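Justification of resources, computational component.

The compute hours requested in this renewal are based largely on the per-chain cost of generating structure records like the one below. Each record pairs the submitted sequence with a full structure-token output. That output is archived, and it is also reused by downstream analysis tasks.
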Amino acid sequence: MDRKVLKTTMRYTLTSFFGSAFSPGLSELSRLSLSIPSECSNNR
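The structure output for this chain reads:
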């Protein structure tokens, strides 16, 4: 197997794996970061 092909395959596998793993966490994080400023302004 060509080294370049192997590298590309590994990168694609890692990207898809981390993407599927972190997508829910990232969306949750962005939702939290969006809700925090509104919480602060509500408390003021």
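Residues 26 and 32 are 10 Å apart (CA to CA). The helical segments are 3-43.
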